[in-house]
Amino acid sequence: MNTRDLEAFVAVVDHGSILAAAAQLHLTQPGVTRRVQSLENTLGVELLDRQSKPLRPTAAGRDAYQLGRRVLASLDDLRAGVASGGEVRGEFRFGITPFLADIALEEPLCSLSETFPSLHTRVNSRWSAELLADLDANRIDAALVYLPGDNEPPAGLARERLCRIAVKVIVPKTLKLPRKVTLHDLSDQRWVLNQDGCGFRRVLRRALEAAQLPFHVAVEAFDPVLRHSLIARGLGIGLTAGEMLKHSPYRKALRVIDVPEFKAEVRAWLVHRPIDGRLAAPLEHLRDALREALGAFPE
């Protein structure tokens, strides 16, 4: 088997396009097509569903993709093992949720780059469920995700819990509420929240559904500063994580309220497939750096 054929196939699946794969590999489109066909001839099966747009692997192709990724990673390990001084090279594909990227990614990413200068780290920011699916499909090597309450990452993945993050309700200071606030007191309020897929939003929805209360969203906004601005101006109420309100430019116009029925939290997990060899040291370094970056939150 020619490993270049395997590289071409993996690139096509990664991008869903022969054109994009050709650009990555610095080949012509016919050149990529020939390599994929050569691999199919070697294995005796069709690997791509050529009727789908974007291109998707067949059932056999999905198996070949996952196994092929491991073969290529092993080759990277081999190259790194014989490199001068044992320097770690190749690619490290890391996924992280938007919220955790905002609060914890900058310093760990810079530290990783400084410690492993020949390692190319590719970062992808998506919701936790999407990142776990990417891990299962071997599209990324590791991810930092958060999950509601006692939920844990799927079995079969190596995982380590880094911290717990309390989810709290925030309102504009101008909003008049009873001394003891209940979820029912908030049922006529509209919410300013992140887009669907956000773990905080999922925790809130479950609590309201369990209390048989309505869930009305006034505004969906990805940017936390924008959400704080809209809440401060009275467009709705929202959620915040732990002590994060202290860092908001709108903190003087907002307040955290205690809702005894809503004692919610999410937990941040570093998850990855069992890894040894080339990526073991970078992953350990990243874990320690992320733990330090999240030090404001309890374990």
Description:
One of its GO terms (molecular function) is DNA-binding transcription factor activity. Residues 1-58 form the HTH lysR-type domain. It holds the Pfam family HTH_1. The protein is 40% helix and 21% strand. It is α/β, with parallel strands linked by helices and 299 residues long. The strands form three sheets. Strands 3, 4, 5, 6, 9, 10 and 11 form a seven-stranded mixed sheet that branches. Strand 1 and strand 2 form a beta hairpin. The chain starts with a helix and ends in a 6-residue tail after the last helix.
Average pLDDT over all residues: 89
Q: Give the structural class.
A: alpha/beta
**Rg computed from alpha carbons, rounded to a whole number of angstroms:** 23 Å
SSE order in H/E notation? HHHEEHEHHEHEEEHEHEEEH
Task: Sum this structure up briefly.
The protein is of the alpha/beta class and 299 residues long. It contains ten helices and eleven strands.
Task: Provide the descriptors you would attach to this structure in a database record.
DNA-binding, D-Maltodextrin-Binding Protein, domain 2, alpha/beta, transcription, LysR_HTH_N, DNA-binding transcriptional regulator, LysR family, 299 residues, transcription cis-regulatory region binding, Arc Repressor Mutant, subunit A, 10 helices
